[in-house]
Amino acid sequence: MPVTRAQWQAELAQLATPDSPGYFCRISPGTYWIGSPTDDPEADAVERPQHRVTLTQGYWIARLPITNTQWQSWVAQGGTASYYANDTDLNQPNQPVVGIDWHAANAYCLWLSTELADMLPPGYGIRLPTEVEWEVAARGAAARRYPWGNDWRDDAAATKEDRDVRGW
Hints:
By secondary structure, the protein is of the alpha+beta class.
């Protein structure tokens, strides 16, 4: 995961390559299916109906969540510590940061945009994705049910099914 300016610079340089396997994933403009079909027994009412959305602009989205190590770079400069900053089960360096709220996440994005402003392409900034952007990135052009495909896999997400494997 990029933490230092040099690491971020290397990842941002890959934005020029549309199919880069780097930290960021390109989502192209286009029409995508989001939401859940009405016959999905596990879908909540707010997820229905499945419908199309059109993105007129593409965007880049991080392939992985922000880690504790990345978050600590901001905390060291006056940012907000997570609620679990001292919990060794939830605060390993490469684990996703948890115990933060929307406001802190937005503040981190603003800080990171400022830190990397001279490296970002003109007009770009780092921000949280919208709900539509998040779902398009997760479902992909094939409108997958899960980010990894249409069938559930216990080992593909941090859920109660794999708590023994993940140690929580």
